[in-house]
Fold this sequence. Notes:
The protein is mostly helical.
Amino acid sequence: MVTVSEYLGYFKDRRLINVFAFGIASGFPWILIGSVMSAWLKDEGLSRSMIGLFGIVFVCYSVNFLWSPLVDRVKLPLLHKLLGQRRSWILLSQVFILLATLWLSQVDIQNQLQTVALCCFVIALAGATQDIAIDAFRIDTLNEHETHKTTAAATMATSGWWTGYALLGAVPFYMADLPDWQWTHVYFVLALIMLALMLGVFFAKEPDSNREYVHKALEAEFIQTDASFLKRIGAWLWVTIAEPFKAFFNRNGVKTALALLAFIFLFKIGEAFLGRMSIVFYKEIGFSNSQIATYSKLGTGLITIVFAFLGSLFNSRYGIVKGLFISGIAMAASNLMFSVIAMVGPKESLYAMAILVDGFTQAWSLVAMVAFISMLCDRAFSATHYALLASLGNLGRTFLSGSSGYLIDYLNGNWALFFLLTALMVIPSLIFLFLIRKRLMALEASFHSKQ
Length: 451
């Protein structure tokens, strides 16, 4: 069992600092199309149902596995020679996020709602593509004998994501309460922040990989004696699209693979319902933009980062599966805290307590899930495998949470009952996790035996 001092020593690795920086860039687009957009739409008088529907753009994060094989294999002209496979895709995605954010800073939302929706879609699509490359970068950057650092890398990714989403996410809410500041002005500042985040690409080192060697060997096996043009195209498509999925099921077995996919799909549905409508809830219950910035952004971000390190130490010493159980129970407790606020009203002490529990939940669950998914990936197809697994986690969250506005409207604005239902949504995943716990622990033991 790793000691605390040994584990803390992992964070001296410069590569993990790069993982943290890319984590910030990964979390930032969620501000642009998530909490800030929800607040802007609410201030413009749009209905809860319409605000909930805007969350459908997050479906890009749920289906990004569809184009993840291209991120694994397609070499971008010019950028690939300059930056390498992973960093070139990260930078290209960030350029599109920057341009769409600048566009949002120029729109009249009342008369250009379709344009706003288009910009949100572009940001979501580019952000989802950026995540494919960033997650693959994190997995590739550690050598195969360094599996003991996987949880530490997951911690840095989680801490970075919450720095980008929550700490930087507090900035626009403070600005929105300033005299004469409009949301368009806020988006212009957010575009400048995005520009600064793009510099991280140039400070990171492209990880070494034998990915191309494996791909070429698989293509040669497919072609065998027929090297015609059509056969070569077929080989490239097979290795790019089909081989990653074949490798995943061969590696885990069909039954276990399906069980893993089902668990990942179910795990965070309840949390997603809460997250999508949380800003609307805060504003309806009576909290100001500044209070939202202080508690839901700064508070959640700092608490999450602290608990991310504590959670990663726990996962490293006692196992990722146990960490997933703890985070699932905490998710239900967090949602119940918001139910209490709905009954009591805008009481800051309760808000702070709910944020404390929610921050613990976010940290513990993300670190455990990121490390868990990472250990399931084949390095030859790291972008595709991680995107497939992570997107499944987003799939249920995106499709179902998009109806969260309709649910609260159906409940006639009964927020207490709404949050109670979201707490109950956690139960099926915990039951499923219990049923497959032995197989998951075996997978975890096998993974760590490689170090």
